Amino acid sequence: MHVGTKVGLAVLFLTGALWAQSNSLMGIWKLNSAQSTFDPGPPPKSVTVKYEPHGKDGVRITVDTIDARGILTHAVYTAKYDGKDNAVKGDSSRDTVALKRIDPYTMEVTNKERGKVTTINTIIVSKDGRTRTDTIRGTNSQGQRVNNVAVFEKQQGFSVKN
Q: Does the pLDDT of residue 131 top 70, yes or no?
C-alpha cells in the first residue's frame, strides 16, 4: 500500500473516531420515568428520541412521546450546533429549536413558540455514553413554570463507517 494511502486511511479513521466521540448523543434514547421528575406533572408514559447524523455537521432528531393521556406526538427537526433557529414539525409546544454544543457531552436546546423562548433544555451525556440527563427549565404553553429532570438510557448507538 502506498504511504499516501496509509496516511489518508489513518486520517479518515481518526476523523471518524473523533466524530463519534464528539457526537455522544447519536443513537436511540428512551426515557427512564422512575429516575425522572416532572414539575408540573403528570409525566409522559414514554419518550423515545433518535439522533442521526445529517449532512456534514448537522443532526436529525426525531422525538416520539406518548403523554399521560395516551396521545402520541411525533416531532422531527434537523439542525446544526450553531445556535440558529430551525423549524420543528409535529410538536405543538414549539415551532423552532436552536442547538448549541457546550462540549462533547453537553448540548443546549432553546425551544421557541412564535419567536418567544419557552424552555431551555441542557442535555448532559454520561462519560460512559449510556445515560443522559435533560434539565428543562422555562414556561409551558399553559403558562406554567417547567422544572423537569428527564433521565434517558441509550438503547442503540450508531457506528462510524470508514
A: yes
